Amino acid sequence: MNLVSYYYFVEAAKDLHITNTAKRLFISQQNLSNHIQKLEQYYGVELFNRKPKLSLTYAGEKLLEAAERILGEDANVINQLAEISEKGVGVLRVGIPAYRAQVCLPLILPIFYQKWPNIKIQLTETQSANMEEMVAEGLLDVFIGIKNADDSALEVTPLLNDHTYLMASDTLLHKYYGKRADRLKQEALNGTDLKAFSELPYMLVKLPNRLRKTTDECFNAAGYKPNVFIESSNTELLISLYPKDFAAFFVTEMRLPLLEDIMTNSSCFPLMSGGDLIMHRLVIAHRAEKYLTQYVKDFIKISIEVLQEIEISRQKARGKAGKRV
């Protein structure tokens, strides 16, 4: 069976929308459908339920698991043979959440491609928990994110500590706190447990987002349920609404450089719990017993060096984190 058919099937299973998958892969819908039909004919089963909407059959779920393993092993073989041939050609499968990629990859990839110009990078941009599983299963070479489980199958290197911030505009603070707003900002400059901000409305990302879990814990510790203006699983939607001064918003430290355009006349207050600043440790991880090509090793090394430089710069700047942006 052609590996391309497996690849197209796996991609279609991600979207469960033939039109969207075909557009994303720059192929025709007919071409994509033909590959899926070939697999169905080869195995003698239906892989998708077509109505009322596209979904995987039980057979499709089983083939998806097998196809991902097959494609993963194929990538591993390509990498090993490429290194043996010393042509410097191969595939690097990197998992990283999209907004972290915006910050990290423009710093990492120029250095990496100076040494490895012929390496193709396949990006997976999803939640850290999903990518952690994919690395353990051999579907990714490395992931950059927040480690969830205590998994001995992974070799993990810390990169930096990512703090969590409450972001609120002056307009919003003065609307709800009046003359108290300026004093409130000064008191929260170096950290807040949210008790003093109970009157604000909030824009929140939906569970199971890690940031939402963290902020829910803070609200519980502060002893109140937040006034939720809007919830959404789309963080970019919340960011687009922030300049309208509807509500306060929570962000990770890594997002702050990406939000400079919308943070005029705003303040950022680091969140605290039990008197300590809340932070999550960003790591880079790979499967401990997996064969690593030299370019994978170099990518890991470069990532560590770049992110640790960012951490050093952050440590110098954190004293100013609560000041007006």
Keywords:
325 residues; single chain; alpha/beta; two-stranded antiparallel ribbon; 9-stranded mixed beta sheet; Arc Repressor Mutant, subunit A
Report on this structure.
This protein has 325 residues and is α/β, with parallel strands linked by helices. Among the domains are: 86 residues, Winged helix-like DNA-binding domain superfamily/Winged helix DNA-binding domain (Arc Repressor Mutant, subunit A), CATH 1.10.10; 118 residues, Periplasmic binding protein-like II (D-Maltodextrin-Binding Protein, domain 2, 3-Layer(aba) Sandwich). Strands 3, 4, 5, 6, 7, 8, 9, 10 and 13 form a nine-stranded mixed sheet that branches. A two-stranded antiparallel sheet has the order 1-2. It has a two-stranded antiparallel sheet with strand order 11-12. Strand 3, helix 5 and strand 4 form a beta-alpha-beta unit. The longest helix has 28 residues. The chain is globular. The C terminus is likely disordered.
The oligomeric state is single chain
Q: Classify the fold: give the CATH topology of one domain.
A: D-Maltodextrin-Binding Protein, domain 2
Average pLDDT confidence is: 88
CATH architecture field of one domain: 3-Layer(aba) Sandwich
Shape: globular
Quantity of strands, as a count = 13
What is shown here, in short?
The chain has helices at residues 3-15, 18-25, 29-43, 58-85, 98-115, 128-136, 170-177, 181-187, 210-222, 235-241, 294-317, and strands at residues 48-49, 55-56, 90-95, 119-124, 142-146, 154-169, 201-205, 227-232, 248-252, 266-270, 272-273, 276-277, 279-287. It is α/β, with parallel strands linked by helices. Strands 3, 4, 5, 6, 7, 8, 9, 10 and 13 form a nine-stranded mixed sheet that branches. Strands 1-2 form a two-stranded antiparallel ribbon. Strands 11-12 form a two-stranded antiparallel ribbon.
